[in-house]
Amino acid sequence: MLMMKIEMNADKILAEQRYTMSAINRTIESAFAQMQLRKVENASGALLYRDSGNARDYGRFGKVVNTLKKQPWFMENVSVWRLYDSEDSDNQNDCSEEDLLLHYHRKQQVGG
How many angstroms separate the CA atoms of 32 and 60, rounded? Predict the structure, then answer.
């Protein structure tokens, strides 16, 4: 199982009024839909996307990550960005977890 969790900083977005939550959510949803990755409904308000069972899903998640990490509207407003990965389980608690937000912020700090 591959799954990505994204939470945007709605308070910051609303206060700055440079973007709207609906426009950001539509753009993110479109990026995942183009890669044929499924949205999972979540009561918390987070955006959750998971694999479709295709052998190419890992590469498709990679394409979405590479696109989002280059977008200032995303990087300046995302508060949670995690990738969950497990080959043997569909349980999020049995997965390895990578904090993509922390990873890319560190890379920016060292000039990468």
Answer: 8
Q: Please state the rounded mean pLDDT for residues 1-20.
A: 96
Structure-block tokens of residue 18? 């440079």
Distance from the Cα of residue 35 to its chain's centroid: 13
Query: Residue 73 half-sphere exposure, CB side, CA atoms within 13 Å?
Result: 14
**C-alpha separations of 7 from 14, 59, 69, 77, 81 in Å:** 14, 22, 14, 9, 7
pTM exceeding 0.85: yes
3-class SS at 50?
strand
Q: How far is CA 87 from CA 3, 5, 95, 105, in A?
A: 11, 18, 8, 27
Taking only the tens place, the pLDDT of each residue in 57-101 is 999 999 999 999 999 999 999 999 999 998 765 665 677 999 999
